[in-house]
Amino acid sequence: MNLRPVACALVFLFLCVPAFAGEYRTVEFESLRVTLDSEWSMQTAPGYWPVRFDITNLGEDRVIEIYGHGDRWWNTGTSGNSEIRQTLRLKRGDRLKLTLSIPAFGDNDSIVFQIRERGRTLQAFTYTGYQSNKSLDEAAALIVVDPTSTLGPVAANWLRSVPIASTYRMPGTASTRLDFILDPPRLPTDWLGYTSLRAVFIGTKEWSRLSGVQREALLTWTASGGDLMFVDGDLNTLLPDPQTRPAGMTTDGNALARYYFGHILFVKSEDITTRGLADVLSATRIPEDSGRSLPANRAPDWLRLGENGFRLPIPGVEGVPARSYMAILVAFSVLIGPVNYALLWRKKRQVLLVLTAPLISVAFLVLLAGYALLGEGIGIKGRAESFTVLDQTTKHAATRATVSLYAAGMAPWNGLRFSRSTAIFPTGMDGTGSREPEAIDLTESQQFSSGIVRARAPSNFEEISYRLARERLSFSRTGGNITVVNALGANVSNLMYRSGGNLYVLSAPLRAGEQATMRAAGKGDSLALPPKFQSIAAHQQDDTYLAYLDHSPFLETGVPNVEERGSRHIVFGYAGEEP
Prior knowledge:
Blueprint: H1 4-15, E1 20-21, E2 24-29, E3 32-37, E4 40-41, E5 47-57, E6 62-73, E7 79-90, E8 95-104, E9 108-117, E10 120-124, E11 128-130, E12 141-144, H2 152-155, E13 161-162, E14 176-177, E15 180-182, E16 199-203, H3 204-209, H4 212-223, E17 227-231, H5 235-238, E18 256-259, E19 262-267, H6 269-275, H7 277-281, H8 322-346, H9 353-376, E20 380-391, E21 396-407, E22 416-418, E23 423-426, E24 438-441, E25 446-450, E26 458-468, E27 472-478, E28 481-487, E29 492-499, E30 502-505, E31 515-520, H10 534-538, E32 544-549, E33 563-564, E34 568-574
Parallel strand pairs: 7-24, 12-15, 12-16, 16-17, 17-19, 20-33, 20-34
Antiparallel strand pairs: 1-4, 2-3, 3-5, 5-8, 6-7, 6-9, 9-10, 9-11, 13-14, 18-19, 20-21, 21-26, 22-25, 23-26, 24-25, 27-28, 28-31, 29-30, 29-32, 30-31, 32-34
């Protein structure tokens, strides 16, 4: 029997997947009406996968829980699992619309949701599977379309296809759709859900149909590094209030505007039809921006391997002292077994084994604990590289960071806690994601009780955030002198400020809350930036500054009192007009 046609058919069925994954349906049960909308792209980059819920309580006051269980696999044969939950308190007649953003970074992921009450499952939905961990060119774009708008008839022709390898192509088969289309009301209200996409296309009518929360989510994603394609519109339509536009927002001849870490491209629908979606997307593929653009695996150092499993090697931490632990375990095995038995046998008191074995075990447990405490301590050591764009005019800051942690002795008892508006990418030790079982509670924050950090093991994650920021450096000019006041909430070790075409620097570190007079920069004055941020210093504008901080008030490490070693925190600030 020739098995080749059968094998080809199986491969084709595996590869030929629809553009949508998930389900979209409404069910009523136990005095609840629940609409679950988990339809999203079948093929995404590492990031978050959004699931939208619309829940109406038709009964008495109650507390319910949304519970999700997921599994993920990698092409290397490894696997992992996750649990995600959120508790909701509902009064009679309450209607809640919310988005749960699920971390997605395996080569293949799946998840199933349940609605629970007091430990009892009220309703179970079906499994949803999708492919993540895709490259920039393989990640889907979202096209937002109102069926009644002018985009409705043409947008379907923009969708790119995923080509099936010619080896497995069969007569009459077609490539699958990579990109997907959604109606405006179905967009997520949480910006994290967009992090797994290549780009979002939206027209003026579609923009007008979005709620305020949905608009804020899209703009937050753009500020965090996303590529927003505004079709048949202009800047005044998208951001009508000039006061809300970031100070560094500029539009070049290709109608490409920089928006914090991201880009906004003002494009005509006719151009997309003529040029094709892939060609339009290429306009946002700027090499010097790749280190701070979404999807996160766009960064050139995404798969960077550090020493001893750390993406950022931590000074003084060499990783798990495996040889020392192994020597102690070997000594324990020899002593509790052959040596213990031989001594008792010589004294003809073998019955004492039931006493000596537990005593030796306790002694070695104390020895191991003492070695861990004296050799490594019980705190958490870490190293971070963070870069923040701070606009002091609009009072917003976008931050991107790489963090490595080492928990000596024991992991934090409640895991790592981040705000729900912060994107966390557990990269593991090879950049493709952590294999540890993951548990996340979204009730009050984004609490990873497991899945990122564990005792005596390297922990690595990428972090992206965008938030309101009152922190600032205030500059004033008196004659030929520049005075700076530090209100960043952290000590400034180095500072370079440009004003009137000239550069000014500090002569000594500036503590938080203090002020100093800056001097004109000389030939030897410069700040060494990581390669992916050097282009910013090369094009520094007037009334902007570069500051090195000893710690960053814009960075969340997930746990208090991290002992940072060798960290670099850089702030690129738009100072605004002098008072």
